[in-house]
Amino acid sequence: MKQSVLSLFTLVCLCGGVFAADEKEPAGLPDTTQSEKLVAKMPGSVAGRVLVDGQGRAGVRVTDGVNFVSTDSSGRYEIEIDPDPLLPYKPARTISVSWPTGIWPVRRTEQGRWAWWIRLMDVKDSQNVDFKFTKVEQSLPLCFGFGTDPHDAMRRRQNLVFTDEVARSAGHVDFSVMGGDLGYLGFGNADKDYTSIAEYTDKFPTILLHLIGNHDIVGIHSKWWSIPHENAGSGAFTKYLNPIRWSFDYAGIHFVGLDWALIDEKGHIQCGTDLSAIDWLEKDLKSLPAGTPAYIVSHQGWSPHQRYYDVCQKYGVKMVLGGHSHRNMFLGVHGGAEFWTKMSLYTLTYITREGFEFVDRCIYKGGRNGWNTHWRHSRRGCALVNAFTPGEKPLVGVADVTLDSASRKLKPLPGATYDLRLGARGAGPRPAARWGLRFKGADGKTREFSYSDKSNMLDLMGLKTYFNPAIPQVDDPSPEDEWVEMRIIVAPDRVRVLVNSRLHYEKFVKPGELETLEFFAEDGKAEFGRVDMWPHKYPDDYKPRRTANSG
Questions:
Q1: Could you tell me the CATH number of the domain that includes residue 518?
Q2: What would the pLDDT profile of 88-106 be if each residue is shown by its tens digit?
Q3: Are 75 and 169 in a shared domain?
Q4: Are 343 and 490 members of one domain?
Q5: Is residue 356 part of a domain?
Q6: Separation between Cα atoms, residue 123 and residue 154, nearest integer Å
Q7: Domain of residue 81, CATH code
């Protein structure tokens, strides 16, 4: 690994918290006197069928997190439970299905959870553990939501943003993943907080798969993570959520959820993908047909073992996506895969056969982990930057304009870059039903960015992102005082969009010189901030003026 990439990964690892070895007995340490008796009752193997609409399906892989087996012609499998060093307490182990393209899990009626995995402790008849799926139509491009690092056991109102916006998508988001660090889990609060997380998961609009973060491992800072108890280490995670490692296919794309923790020479948990997880990953990837695109999601996809990157390169992994750092960063390319890390709250990831794109929705403000409050903007808070040509006053097109079911055209400037700050919603008693910006470039295409109160849909260059920019708070003023900010930078070689300075989208579209530029409000009023225009190259003495809302 190149030193620069290694250093960056190390920085990212430390950002999420330094792991210390504290040997003091933690609060709430459970009684383990019954543990050995329960371990003795655990089966050495599990068997059953994988059913698709009630019929056995051949060739479906089943895993215990260590090995894989495939179902026979009747859909039946049998798998032995081999030891896993990162889940030493056998009753906390899981059996799960790595399901193929064209089928999807169904919900367990008694829990509302998805029937693609089971914990060994919950197995009642080890020879009849069935997993149920149904046939579904799947096609590219696909979109999945990737949330990460809430640190609040999914209790705070910010988490409504992720739920609400996926719910509004009307099927646009195919599935979702939560990238770990769900709370600060210890023996004293594991059951309470994981119950809250499970309730959020069960009610989520799509299937929501979880990754385990360092703060989700009970007893991580001490030797107590490996005691024989169902909540120790990753046990509480598997008790309430899903396996620590999982995989499946969607529309011909392979997705892997990988755990991120390893055991050091003192028997403590440290950060970095363990060799046992890498062994499982290689077994998973080598079974794929040649040329299958593979994507890995992990709390943070770093490992001290070069073999991890060798496996990624050997099997053509396209991307490793994680959280942990509380930053949006491209970490580099290693083993042929692009490594990315995201900040709270979520990212919509669009995947095609050719590659991937992100639309980031980040809500992050101050505090230990950025969750002091939902990020909000004041009215008229979008006049942020003045740009100018040397010797001339700022080139400001418009500022603080209110339109009522009307449009306003600007005369494009030759060779200019446009910094467009648009704000609307709450302009009097009748906010515009739809408002935004249209422009036509030298390529002859007319593009539109618009916000609709009715659908909460922002159309970004052909990709649709649904969002509710102002989730109500307890002390919120009336909806008439809410403010939505949309900043659009149009340059000759690209378009960049930011909504409330925290939803990002960038596309290299090469519109060329603009022929028309117009912003509009339909069926009601919309207030707009300012439109700044400047030459494509900044003057040497240019210094932007930044405010608290500049992002």
A1: 2.60.120.560
A2: 999 999 999 999 999 999 9
A3: yes
A4: no
A5: yes
A6: 28
A7: 3.60.21.10
Q: 3-class DSSP state for residue 149?
A: coil
Structure tokens at 10: 């190390």
Question: What is the rounded CA–CA span in Å between residue 92 and residue 174?
Answer: 29
Predicted model pTM: 0.77
> In terms of C-beta density within 10 A (0-12 exposed, 13-18 middle, 19 or more buried), how is residue 290 classed?
exposed
Residues paired with residue 248 on neighbouring β-strands, in sequence order: 255
Q: Higher pLDDT residue, 341 or 96?
A: 96
- Reported as half-sphere exposure (CB side, CA atoms, 13 A), residue 235 has a value of 27
Q: Which two tokens stand for residue 193?
A: 């907080």
Is 89 within a domain?
A: yes
Collapsed DSSP state (helix, strand, coil) of residue 350:
strand
36: exposed, middle or buried (C-beta count within 10 Å: 0-12, 13-18, 19+)? exposed
Single-letter amino acid code for the residue at 79: I
* Cα maximum dimension of the chain: 84
Q: Are residues 303 and 413 in the same domain?
A: no
Whether 33 is covered by a domain: the verdict is no
Task: Tally the domains of the chain.
Answer: 2
Q: What is the mean pLDDT of residues 20-24?
A: 54
Element (H, E) at 166: helix 159-167
CA–CA dist 540, 47 (Å, integer): 71
Same domain for 176 and 294: yes
The answer to whether residue 375 sits within a structural domain is no
Q: What share of the chain is helix, strand, coil (3-state, %, to 5)?
A: 15, 35, 50
Is residue 427 a contact partner of residue 401, using CB atoms and an 8 Å limit? no
The residue among 347, 348, 317 whose CA lies nearest residue 333 is 317
Does pLDDT of 503 surpass 80? Answer: no
Encode 444-465: b = buried (16+ Cβ within 10 Å), e = exposed. eeebebbbebeebbbbbeebbb
Specify which residues 420 forms β-bridges with: 488, 531
- The single-letter code of the amino acid at 549 is N
Cβ atoms of residues 273 and 296 within 8 Å = no
